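User: Sorry, what's this?
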Amino acid sequence: MYTVIDSPIGELRLVAAHDAITQIEFSPFRDADGRPRGERDDDHPVLVECARQLRAYFAGELTEFDLPLAPAGTEFQQRVWKELCAIGFGETASYGAVALRLGLTNAASRAVGLANGRNPIPVVIPCHRVIGANGTLTGYAGGLERKQLLLDLERQDALF
């Protein structure tokens, strides 16, 4: 099941299965990608709560999400996504730093980047907080403009 909400970074489609969030998709939505979404259900409790928390995040009132998550991915991707959740609000880390936190060498940066790019629950699993080793913004599934908006939102809030 899914719902769609407006946000400062465009419409977001929130997808859930078995009472857990499985995907957050950026518009324009791609329906022909084979991902299961089910029927639209704007009143399902987990989707309502996800929408509430995202609105609070975008309003600068929430810095940590508390949602049941069930992202589909390989064991390595799951490890990377879990590590992304350890990057604090308003902070960033390089791909190499994430690799080192996982007990890998800097040579695993590319693999971390690939897993980061396959994160099915952006914003909540904060893949936008991962940047290049030299501090530059690098790829983001939602586009670099969205990544910059998310980082700016967190930096502004972190000042107060």
